[in-house]
Design a protein that fits this description.
heterodimer, A: about 400 residues, alpha/beta, Rossmann fold, 2 domains, 6-stranded mixed β-sheet, 4-stranded mixed β-sheet, 12 helices, 16 strands, about 40% helix, B: about 300 residues, 8-stranded mixed β-sheet, 8 strands, about 15% strand
Chain lengths: ~400, ~300
């Protein structure tokens, strides 16, 4: 059923709150943190105005937000929260509990730098720091994408073969606070798509009492972790199924990544989230100048679609990977994954790491152009390069 | 309810069954069984990481015949908050009709220290649940370290009785009054040595609308260095010496629920315990006197607060 909906000017956070309003989850437990706050504020207003009948748990910390979500989720509820940065860091312990207990919690993350120095602006060091905690991670370029992917995340998380939590990431302030035109689809259609959660087990099943969160020692722990990996490996298939279903409503595509002018591209930039918008604009300009450049925008970061990414990059001569976070003493997170993806290819493209935008530093078109020019002229090396950074001598 | 009737009730509905791996003489299982028998309604429990949790649910076994969840050390109150929210939502949306009770269990480490923020938040939010701290006065899941519940003068592995510092030199927190300061309807101190009193308090805790807190003295032979067979005797001496007075704060009104006919010298409670052995050594009389003084002061203060009831 196609749903036209209406186009309204919204911030990314408001668009996410709209998705939550349409979902009307059983439980939301959240705590304010910049730049996520307006998600929980907007949703709280929906609740207090009676537009949703969600039970809101106004917790005293993000640690308790995730703890309450875990409790609610294990009691069969559809539970959501939202956070970023220090908040995600504070809940870290329970982020691992949520995936380990197989709680299908959906959590929007308005990506923000990790302290210190304290900084309230965008980079991906918060969710990248949590990339090995067993959550599915979807990165979004626009408010529209974030809005729609909350629904995709929900159905993916709750699928009986998956039962895993999902982070829906948007760039703090850049996407969370900038107003864009967003198409909000009809309530009835989106509510029908969201449906109701059908838990496999629940603490509220009084006839079949269950013990959740038992201690597993040397004899069982390993097998449980293996099952988590199995579930993660099933994600791509289910992701595409849910994507197809959602596509019928929106007409949009939800691949693991988006390929933009990649067909004959010799120089390719791989990046995520709002940087893809800037890159796309530069691709258009450079294409007009006759340069064969393209963009690969990664949406699904966990699980990482290695084979598909390798195929998408197989024809490129040189590839620049633009990371909005660092892994100190190692390859930047996205660059590391792309390098992994290319390992099995016989003919590998040249590969270059660029880090940009930490703590909200702007990524300018000139930076993107510089990276493309490097790739077009074969300036590829193993050095780490930074875009928009003042070096000590400057 | 007398002890025989309580025992019958526990046997009739064994919500926490035998076969767990708690130490011999541990008071916690007795406390859990007694409290869970104090309501005949269905109960869902949350449990903080601790002795009770690790020893009762070693996968694939569980001693819990009621829905039970453990998530982490410091978050049992937040976890049960989420379970209650799910229940409220399910009730509102017609998925459940039964009247269900909620309880969270934590040791003193999780209740007094690492989880006190989570507890405070849950009490402030006013969820309808019973929080139970089984207080053995130290971190026992990690093997006998000092906690905010360790009393003055006690020797623990992280604050042992040494040559210059003789065990803990600070007072124990008063968790019942911290809880009561949240203006919750019910908070009480109880002991494993007086089950009718504990049962009565648990019944009240389940009955009130809103949060209730029970702090229950839980003899730990491993930390205290006492004989398993003396678990009840030791707790009784704590009560009779007024080191562990039994009282309740109901809607702001404090009432002492048991007054010893004659106050036992605190030495009678301390002497059998390895953790207080140093205070009985020659030259340490000062330590023992100081403990007695602090216990007396605590009791006098309680009498004042409770209107001399």
């Amino acid at each position: 059923m196609a749903a036209k909906g209406k186009t309204v000017p919204l911030t990314g956070n408001y668009a996410i709150a709209e998705a939550m309003r349409q979902i009307n989850p059983d439980v939301v437990a959240a705590y304010p943190i910049t730049p996520q706050t307006s998600i929980v504020e907007t949703f709280s207003k929906f609740a207090n105005d009676g537009r949703v009948d969600t039970e809101i748990v106004r917790v005293e910390s993000e640690h308790s937000a995730m703890s309450a979500c875990v409790g609610a989720s294990m009691a069969g509820a559809r539970a959501m929260t939202a956070t970023c940065s220090a908040g995600l860091a504070l809940m870290y312990e329970i982020v691992g509990v949520a995936s380990g207990l197989r709680c299908p919690i959906v959590m929007p993350v308005a990506n923000r730098a990790i302290s210190a120095p304290i900084n309230i602006h965008c980079d991906h060091s918060d969710s990248m720091g949590a990339r090995d905690l067993g959550w599915i991670q979807i990165y979004n370029e626009t408010a529209q994408e974030a809005y729609e992917n909350v629904f995709l995340a929900l159905k993916l998380a709750e699928h009986p073969d998956i039962q895993l939590p999902v982070m829906v990431c948007e760039d703090g302030f850049i996407t969370s606070h900038c107003v864009q035109n967003v198409r909000i689809y009809d309530d009835a259609v989106m509510k029908k798509f969201a449906g109701e959660r059908k838990p496999i087990h629940s603490l509220l099943d009084l006839k079949e009492p269950i013990s959740v969160g038992a201690i597993e020692l040397q004899d069982y722990f390993f097998e449980t972790k293996r099952q988590q990996q199995d579930a993660m490996e099933k994600v791509p298939k289910v992701y595409l199924e849910v994507a197809e279903e959602l596509s019928k409503i929106t007409g949009n595509k939800y691949g693991f990544f988006e390929e933009y002018k990649m067909k004959d591209a010799e120089a390719v930039i791989v990046t995520m989230s709002s940087a893809a918008g800037t890159t796309r604009a530069v691709v258009d300009k450079m294409r007009n100048e006759g340069k064969k450049v393209g963009l690969l925008k990664i949406r699904l970061f966990r699980p990482f679609p290695y084979e598909e990414v390798a195929r998408a990059l197989s024809k490129a001569k040189n590839v620049a990977v633009l990371d909005r976070s660092m892994s100190f003493g190692a390859h930047a997170p996205l660059y590391g994954e792309i390098r992994n993806a290319l390992y099995e290819m016989e003919k590998k493209p040249g590969l270059q790491s660029y880090v940009f935008g930490l703590g909200g530093r702007d990524l300018l078109e000139s930076h993107v152009r510089q990276a493309f020019n490097d790739m077009l002229t074969g300036k590829v090396s193993r050095e780490k390069r930074y875009l928009g950074l003042r070096e000590a001598s400057e | 309810m007398n002890p025989k009737e309580i025992a019958e009730r526990i046997t009739k509905t064994p919500r926490f069954t035998s076969g767990h791996r708690m130490c011999g003489g541990c008071a916690a299982p007795i406390i859990v069984r007694t409290i869970l028998a104090a309501t005949e309604k269905p109960v869902v429990a949350a449990n903080a990481t601790g002795c009770l949790e690790v020893a009762s649910t070693i996968y694939p076994f569980s001693s819990w015949d009621i829905p039970w969840i453990h998530s982490a050390f410091e978050n049992a109150p937040a976890t049960i908050s989420g379970v209650i929210a799910a229940y409220e939502a399910a009730k509102k949306r017609g998925r459940i009709k039964e009247d269900v009770k909620f309880v969270a269990f934590g040791g003193d480490g999780s209740s007094y220290d690492i989880g006190i923020q989570s507890l405070s938040g849950a009490l402030e939010r006013g969820h309808d649940f019973v929080y139970v701290c089984y207080d053995n006065e130290g971190y026992m899941n990690t093997g006998g370290q000092r906690s905010g519940a360790t009393p003055f003068g006690a020797s623990t592995t992280t604050d042992p009785a040494g040559k210059v510092r003789k065990g803990k030199q600070e007072n124990k927190k008063d968790l019942v009054r911290i809880a009561a300061a949240h203006n919750i309807p019910y908070a009480a101190k109880a002991s494993v040595s007086n089950l009718p009193d504990l049962f009565m308090k648990a019944e009240k805790a389940f009955k009130v609308k809103g949060p209730a807190v029970l702090v229950v003295l839980s003899t730990c032979p491993t930390l205290w260095g006492t004989m398993p067979k003396d678990t009840i005797t030791m707790a009784k001496r704590a009560v009779d010496s007024c080191a562990w007075p039994l009282y309740e704060i109901e809607n702001g009104r404090c009432r002492i629920t048991y007054k010893p006919s004659s106050k036992l010298p605190v030495a009678e409670f301390l002497r059998p315990q390895r953790r207080f052995r140093h205070v009985f050594m020659p030259g340490n009389e000062k330590e023992l006197n100081e403990i007695q003084k602090r216990v007396d002061e605590g009791w006098e203060e309680l009498l004042r607060i409770c209107d001399g009831s």
